[in-house]
Amino acid sequence: MKKALLGLLLAATLPVHAAALPQFKAFIAGTRTLAADFTQTVSGKQRQETAHGTMQIQRPGKLRWTYAQPFEQLIVGDGKTLWLYDKELAQVTRRDQAGALGNSPAALLAGSNAIERDYQLREVGKTGKVEWLAASPKKADNTFESIKMGFSANQLVEMELADSFGNVTRIQFKNLQRNVKVNPAQFRFTPPAGVDVVGE
CA 106, CA 79: separation in Å to the nearest integer? Predict the structure, then answer.
């Protein structure tokens, strides 16, 4: 599951519906900062695992995802370096952020507004009050076969990602706040004393 959590942020591919595209564009163009609680469920052929946490984004390029349950994990991007801290393993993984995120959903949410330059966007339908958008990166990336983003009232409420191993990751956002003041320290990370640091 830990790999799935990291893979979610380092993924690439997305789905959409008629009213979803203008909602998506309005959401991206009008969002400087973003904060929300989330519930993430990973479903496979014989398993289902759920995690809870919070996320903060400051565009362009800065992000923080904190997993509180069932284990503690922190992912911080300061615009240049992406840090993954696994408290249970007492290990920090350091990677170049641009290379690590690529054309992933995290890069899409935290990046610039050049969405149509990097993605093929299409509408894919409506479920209840949620309009779904599909966005596929123009540069090939096979980490995920598809990623859907659900919008309601110009707010991102859900993401759904399917990978090539038959796993489906669903993230539901709650208490979403846009353009609130965010502490810049949230996007800086210093490895705790005594942990192993691996990576670039």
Answer: 12
Burial class of residue 161 in the structure, from the number of CB atoms within 10 Å of its CB (0-12 exposed, 13-18 middle, 19+ buried): buried
Q: According to the model, what pLDDT value does residue 21 have?
A: 85
Q: Which two tokens stand for residue 71?
A: 């284990």
Q: Is the dihedral of CA 16, 107, 43, 35 positive or negative?
A: negative
pLDDT digits (tens, 9 = 90+) for 104-149: 667 667 766 566 676 778 898 888 889 999 877 677 665 667 788 9
Beta-carbon contacts of 61 under 8 Å, excluding residues fewer than 6 positions away, are 77, 78, 79, 97, 110, 111
Q: For residue 143, what pLDDT is reported?
A: 65
Decide if 42 contacts 52 (C-beta within 8 A).
no
Question: Domain containing 85: what range?
Answer: 2-199
- Would you put residue 122 in left (φ > 0), alpha (ψ -120 to 50) or beta? beta
Domain CATH for 115 = 2.50.20.10
pTM over 0.85: no
Helices then strands, each counted (H, E), the chain: 5, 12
92 phi/psi in degrees, rounded to 5: -120, 130
pLDDT at 17: 38
